[in-house]
Amino acid sequence: SVNGEWRSSKVSTGTTIIAVTYDGGVVIGSDSRASMGGEYVSSRVINKVVQVHDKIFCCMAGSLADAQAVTNAVIHQLSFHSMQMGEPPLVQSAASIMRSFCYNHRDELSAGFIVAGWDSKRGPQVFQVSLGGMVLEQEFTIAGSGSTYIYGYVDAKFKPGMTREECLTFTTNALSLAMDRDNVSGGVVHLAIVTEKEAEKQLIPGNKLPVIQSLE
Amino acid sequence: MQGSISDHGTSKGLKMGTTIIAIEFDGGVVLGSDSRVSAGASVVNRVMNKLSPLHDKIYCALSGSAADAQTIAEIVNYQLDVHSVEVGEDPLVRSAATLVKNISYKYKEELSAHLIVGGWDKKEGGQVFATLNGLITRQPFAVGGSGSSYIYGFVDAEYRRRMTRQECQEFVINSLTLAMNRDGSSGGVAYLVTIDSEGVEEKCVLGNELPRFYDRDVVEPAKTEKV
């Protein structure tokens, strides 16, 4: 707007984030836009997929300040926990630590997360830790403002036990569709693919995203 | 295009949360809607047909405030009757959409309803017009209502040009089902109307006949064994 109302609003990640399990691993993805007041894009390349441990990643949505603060606290606590146990942490532990922050400070925080990764006890897992501190384990999950537009798509297209390639296509398509419709999601697609062997990061620039058919 | 956000219905009247969709194919159109009318948290009518005839081969899909939408449809129905007598033949779909648009635009501050107009005429064949907030635009397909937000990704990905009549009907039923599964203000049964040069086919798909999508936590009942 002419008055630059965005200057007085906080930075939020109007966002689309997604995590999907497949046969042997999990794909985690996000867009890359940080916006202020729904008008100004304060960063077009931020990475909302944060590595909290070797094989565990976390996606942020909501207020960027809150999300970063909580994520940093989780990284710290998780590394300590993992040292105490003497082994790599469970994905469920990461989700639990995330949840206790979100729940205990629920009146002050306004951020939601997806925690996903691989551990030796239960393999690939996805947890949604939402605003007030609820934890829900699912085969796949979507979150953020852009997720509204792709509920129909992911409900229709998800199948359990996909291959790695099918899962990557599913995730990239879903993000692309959401980025096309949500004005506070956009930019590039950040991906992380976690399997028993390794955690791999990928970036898909805007011009390499799948093209959605136009309404001609 | 967003539909109305549901209010506490008792003070502001009935809202049709709703999911509506219309798509054209070569030779006609398919219109579809859910059947839920809510007043706040209460479902006041679970079998409401939101596909309303404006003329023999022109229908509209209603969403938003129930009273506003129904009134607009009735007024336009009357105006089209007069118009078709004056011109001596069946009205164009574009004429119907324009009449809807005129009311939506003139009273845009007071009204809160979105009508999608779809039909067949001999000049242009099957057509779909969106009339949100007083604009008029012809589109290959249109979605509306609160439930439509959840299916934008799906319809963007699945729509292809030149689908057949059958494929369009499946597209509409799938889209409605997905939206009804996610939107609290949409639900019930799915109503379908298919219009082409031959006539109008009305169909109602009951809740248990709607397509099922994968859900890990749904357990199919075990078949009982006979002793």
UniProtKB/TrEMBL annotation, chain A:
<keyword id="KW-0378">Hydrolase</keyword>
<keyword id="KW-0539">Nucleus</keyword>
<dbReference type="InterPro" id="IPR023333">
    <property type="entry name" value="Proteasome_suB-type"/>
</dbReference>
<comment type="subunit">
    <text>Component of the proteasome complex.</text>
</comment>
<comment type="subunit">
    <text>The 26S proteasome consists of a 20S proteasome core and two 19S regulatory subunits. The 20S proteasome core is composed of 28 subunits that are arranged in four stacked rings, resulting in a barrel-shaped structure. The two end rings are each formed by seven alpha subunits, and the two central rings are each formed by seven beta subunits. The catalytic chamber with the active sites is on the inside of the barrel. Component of the immunoproteasome, where it displaces the equivalent housekeeping subunit PSMB6.</text>
</comment>
<dbReference type="GO" id="GO:0004298">
    <property type="term" value="F:threonine-type endopeptidase activity"/>
</dbReference>
<dbReference type="InterPro" id="IPR000243">
    <property type="entry name" value="Pept_T1A_subB"/>
</dbReference>
<dbReference type="GO" id="GO:0019774">
    <property type="term" value="C:proteasome core complex, beta-subunit complex"/>
</dbReference>
<keyword id="KW-0865">Zymogen</keyword>
<feature type="active site" description="Nucleophile">
    <location>
        <position position="15"/>
    </location>
</feature>
<dbReference type="InterPro" id="IPR016050">
    <property type="entry name" value="Proteasome_bsu_CS"/>
</dbReference>
<dbReference type="InterPro" id="IPR029055">
    <property type="entry name" value="Ntn_hydrolases_N"/>
</dbReference>
<dbReference type="GO" id="GO:0005634">
    <property type="term" value="C:nucleus"/>
</dbReference>
<dbReference type="Pfam" id="PF00227">
    <property type="entry name" value="Proteasome"/>
</dbReference>
<comment type="function">
    <text>The proteasome is a multicatalytic proteinase complex which is characterized by its ability to cleave peptides with Arg, Phe, Tyr, Leu, and Glu adjacent to the leaving group at neutral or slightly basic pH. The proteasome has an ATP-dependent proteolytic activity. This subunit is involved in antigen processing to generate class I binding peptides.</text>
</comment>
<keyword id="KW-0391">Immunity</keyword>
<comment type="similarity">
    <text>Belongs to the peptidase T1B family.</text>
</comment>
<protein>
    <recommendedName>
        <fullName>Proteasome subunit beta</fullName>
    </recommendedName>
</protein>
<dbReference type="GO" id="GO:0051603">
    <property type="term" value="P:proteolysis involved in protein catabolic process"/>
</dbReference>
<keyword id="KW-0647">Proteasome</keyword>
<dbReference type="GO" id="GO:0002376">
    <property type="term" value="P:immune system process"/>
</dbReference>
<dbReference type="InterPro" id="IPR001353">
    <property type="entry name" value="Proteasome_sua/b"/>
</dbReference>
<keyword id="KW-0888">Threonine protease</keyword>
<dbReference type="GO" id="GO:0005737">
    <property type="term" value="C:cytoplasm"/>
</dbReference>
<keyword id="KW-0645">Protease</keyword>
<keyword id="KW-0963">Cytoplasm</keyword>
<comment type="function">
    <text>Component of the proteasome, a multicatalytic proteinase complex which is characterized by its ability to cleave peptides with Arg, Phe, Tyr, Leu, and Glu adjacent to the leaving group at neutral or slightly basic pH. The proteasome has an ATP-dependent proteolytic activity.</text>
</comment>
